[in-house]
Amino acid sequence: MKRIPLFLLISSIFLLISCNTSNQTLKQEQQYSKKVEENTLDIFNLNGGFELSLKENNSLTEKNLTFIINENKFSPDVELLNDYEVSSKYRLFFLVDYNQVNVKYNGESKESIDINLEPYSKELINVTFEDLKTGTHDLIIMVIREPDYFVEEREFIPGSGRILKRRATLIVKENSIETVDYHYLPTTNNEMITDSPFLTKKINEPLSNIKTRENYTLNFYNQNEDSNYAIVSILNNKQVNITSRFITIRETGLVEIPFSIPSMTSETKNNLNIILFESPFETLEDEDGNLLQVNWRTYPSNLITIKN
Question: pLDDT category, 7, cuts 50, 70, 90?
Fold first, then answer.
């Protein structure tokens, strides 16, 4: 009986283990993708998280909260980290003064960018904002995790843990801010206190599934007197126009805004995300880089699926 050399035996065992591991990983990813398509995987209750960072050489400080540039384009590096044990899909959006804009990415103009990340991986994305107007702007890069996941009846998926943003002040050549018209809204003495905006029909119960050609009410609780907000509404991968986009509130309490469902696409299901940005057009740093007492909080809604 011939002896098998030890190194050949070890190599064979290692090859078998590698093949089995590779096949098992592929099988797990296929099962994960199938469950996502069938909405049978609770992908928003996994251990881990994700991170979004923004860097560029013209930052006022290392905090990357204020950028001062002398040309009408801006090319930051955006880093996206997937710290989950499974692959995840992310969709990046880009806003200037709370309006969605296209950016240049890999030589193409993009209104949004889809990024698929393997478990515990990250990707550096370089984008370019072009044709920027001279003056001071609010620049926002926002990411939505698993943007094509549709909620079922009675399923509630909060915005926290699903939406992240990086906000910065971008000064193009000179520090000047355009005048913004804010719409005043009163508050009601309602005991329902929540950090997140939500849609209702007749009763104060947050909705996850809504229908087209119907009117709803957007609700949120204002915690501070004399507050200003910008409201951004994203349908699938596009921003949609809403009335009273910039609002001012003098008292604490519940705010109620009439909300009409925007025009639908040809898809039978569409995802709607509503995000409130506090203190629009206010800077978080002074000219020396010192932090100011400004609320830059963001309040995302729960995931809302619209059915035609």
Answer: very low
